[in-house]
Specification:
With 321 residues, the chain is α/β, with parallel strands linked by helices. The chain is built from 9 helices and 13 strands.
């Protein structure tokens, strides 16, 4: 029996093994900019409407039972968590179409699942950030990210049909029960999660470069704003993964801050030191309490003064006029 066998399955029927994934692959390519490179073609079979053709090799899946799961039921899991995220995001975007992707079935557990499985949701969701130490940018759960239906009556029937297809793939416990992948589907590129950094730059057009910059810039701004809203930091910012994850596209941390005067105000210190302020906080008017006007002194007439003095110094038992 071969170690791998290529089959079709809905990416939404596969679960993650890890709680967290990084924003880049190990070859340096950004996960988010890889998603638009996934092609969608008609399936030509009855089980699915569309098939995904990704610019990376097929993910490997295997049947596994997570003992921490209350369902105590076998599911399809993968060790290729970043690639699964890409496939799920495209499949969810085409909902309620029934979308499938070619996968490699791993018959034997190589022991990596037990070592790598740390999901607290039994693989239903995954968190995304530059590293496990960095703040979480977003949490992905495909069931919470389906597009809003335009026509409720029609979309309800289509959504029911699509969910049935996902549940059918989840319940397919054997390899033979899965649909065979077309033989013409091959991956021409070598983007993986475990390969060494590529020395040959992949061809990209101007739109890809812009989207890569925008994606990283948005992530960096979120991290910086979160730090700057912490008063104890006193304007000092630092991102541990900047050199590895951001510097290639965004430049140094200081140059990036200086390039975004709409977001940040940089104050130079001694030598190379500097502090940063959020522009909206730096420009916000100070909210001082309005000064209260002093109470107006009472104006007494001469007649009233006489009455007060008379009462104050009058002997006991005397009658006032």
């Amino acid at each position: 029996m071969p170690l791998f066998e290529e089959k079709l399955i809905s990416p939404l029927a596969i679960r993650f093994t890890q709680e967290h994934i990084k924003t880049t692959f190990q070859d340096g390519r950004v996960v988010e900019t890889t998603i638009p490179e996934i092609r969608v073609i008609p399936s030509g079979c009855d089980d699915y409407d569309l098939i995904l053709q990704a610019p990376f090799p097929n993910i490997e899946i295997l049947r596994w039972c997570d003992k921490s799961d209350k369902e105590d039921f076998n599911h399809w899991y993968t060790l290729d968590n970043r690639r699964l995220y890409c496939l799920q995001k495209v499949a969810a975007a085409h909902w309620p179409s029934r979308v499938a992707a070619a996968v490699d079935i791993l018959y034997a557990d190589p022991g990596k699942v037990r070592r790598k499985l740390d999901s607290t949701t039994s693989g239903r969701s995954v968190t995304i950030s530059p590293s496990v130490k960095a703040p979480v940018l977003l949490t992905w759960d495909w069931q919470l990210n389906l597009p809003e239906p335009a026509d409720l009556a029609i979309s309800w029937k289509q959504a029911t049909r699509a969910m049935s297809a996902v549940n059918r793939d989840i319940a397919r416990a054997s390899v033979d029960a899965l649909v065979d992948a077309p033989r013409t589907m091959t991956s021409s590129e070598t983007l993986t999660e475990s390969t060494a950094p590529s020395t040959q730059a992949s061809p990209r057009n101007a739109e890809d470069e812009v989207s890569a910059y925008d994606s990283l810039a948005a992530q960096a701004i979120v991290l910086l704003e979160k730090q700057l809203r912490q008063p104890e930091r006193k304007g000092f910012v630092w991102i541990d993964e900047w050199k590895d994850c951001y510097q290639k596209e965004l430049g140094t941390l200081r140059s990036f801050v200086e390039s975004r005067p709409d977001k940040f105000a940089l104050k130079a210190g001694r030598g190379k030191s500097y502090r940063v302020e959020l522009k909206q906080l730096a420009c916000a008017p100070s909210q001082k309490k309005p000064k209260q006007r002093p109470a107006e002194k009472a104006v007494w007439t001469a007649e009233e003064n006489k009455k007060v003095l008379a009462k104050r110094w009058m002997p006991v038992g005397a009658k006032t006029a």
